[in-house]
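Researcher: I'd like a structural prediction for the single chain below. Treat it as a standalone chain; there are no partners to consider.
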Amino acid sequence: MCCRLFCGSDGLDAEALASFAKKGTDELIAFLSNSEISEGALLLKDNPSEFEKWGNDRLCEIVGGQSLSPFGPDPIFLPITRL
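Model: Treating it as a single chain, here is the predicted structure.
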């Protein structure tokens, strides 16, 4: 049931992510260290606020120039990233 809260990708399985998240921080970081977001896993271990910034920066890269478009994904993503 909790797997619905996670979005998977080709390189990151949502069910495995949920499973490791339930096991604890160290296990989650170990899992992420062997994934496509290994750079973020190192930041999560050392400095959670830097991990948050890294995640926001990645999201901005994904949405690119759409941040100025009222009809792009920005009206959906920006409120989430500002929580």
